[in-house]
Amino acid sequence: MPPSRLAVGRGGVPRLLLLLVLGCAGGAYRPVVIIHGLFDSPSDFRHLRAFINESHPGTEVTVLDLFDRGASLRPLWLQVEGFRRALAPIMANAADGVHLLGYSQGGLISRALLATTPDHNVRSFISLAAPQMGQYGDTAYLQWLFPRHMKSNLYRLCYTPLGQGVSICNYWNDPHHRDLYLNSSDFLAPLNDERMHPNASEWKRNLLRIQNLVLIGGPDDGVITPWQSSLFGFYDANETVRDMEEQEVFVRDTFGLRTLLLRGALGGCAVPGVAHTAWHSLRPIFERCIRPWLT
After folding, report:
1. Contact criterion met (CB below 8 Å) for 180 and 155
2. Which of 25, 33, 37, 116 is the 20 to 30 A CA-CA neighbour of 210?
């Protein structure tokens, strides 16, 4: 079946996202591995696990039990290494590959894991409400974590060695202090190849081993700021949201995003009316945005 195109104007869903409806491949379903987000634990994904088991009986579903709750504040490269060790035996036992779903902060961890794992066999990578282009906003999480810092001055902490020891600072992307971000971000800037590093070509090649990249988010998320970061959109210096295809990382194809689009491997859903903590608990979201990719 040919892909259908989602098309909206500036500040909304990136015009180039595709939604492929895939047919059942037959035989056993591939294992699904889930990496949770900030302050989450495996128990938070009981609904999603049930949805998968009901629609695809017999599917092996694993929510990796690492860096739960407060431990999710640990530096992201540390978490990437831990999740890689946990994922390795699951992939080794899945000759036909696995599907990887990363929720919220876990979506960034998942992308970094794929980029730095040369022999992974992930078929569909589903990024569920994840700040793929970073975070810049005074959300409830931020106010709880950093009560003395508003978004306008959090860079003073995040862009220091001390701040880079906290996960949220690893993807804090202040559009008003671009140079500090590029020079100080130990995680997102190199992951996006916005700062030169010797592993860039290898990381891009590794990420492109996936067959599908699925981006899911929506305007009523309430946590991911701007919400279009879930779809690789982000603010410019005037805090105007620029869609994915206007981002330098897309135009220059720094880590493979444009390549994925051109080969028809980029899919997505933008759904209004969904709060951040509800993405993995709503059956309609599963049926529309996740289930078609778990074949």
Report:
1. yes
2. 37
Look at phi and psi of residue 290 and say left if phi exceeds 0, alpha if psi is from -120 to 50, else beta.
alpha
What is the model's pLDDT at position 108?
A: 98
Mean predicted confidence (pLDDT) in 38-53: 97
Catalytic residue among 36, 44, 104, 280: 104
How far apart are alpha carbons 145 and 164 in whole angstroms? 14
- Annotated active-site residue 104? The verdict is yes
- pLDDT over 90 percentage in the chain: 84
Other Cβ atoms less than 10 A from the Cβ of 25: the count is 11
Of 219, 294, 277, nearest in space to 39 by CA = 277
CATH number given to 4-137+192-293: 3.40.50.1820
Given 174, 186, 221, 243, which residue is catalytic? 221
pTM of structure: 0.90
Alpha-carbon separation of residue 155 from 37, 115, 228 (angstroms): 22, 26, 21
C-alpha distance from residue 120 to each of 60, 92, 182, 211, 234 (Å): 18, 9, 28, 12, 29
Q: Is 221 a catalytic residue?
A: yes
Q: Kindly list the domain boundaries of the chain, sorted by start residue.
A: 4-137+192-293
Q: What is the pLDDT of residue 285?
A: 98
Residues with Cβ < 8 Å from 123, sequence gap 6 or more? Answer: 30, 97, 98, 99, 210, 211, 212
Q: Which residue has the higher pLDDT, 232 or 13?
A: 232
**Per residue in 86-122, pLDDT tens?**
999 999 999 999 999 999 999 999 999 999 999 999 9
Catalytic residue among 36, 120, 177, 276: 276
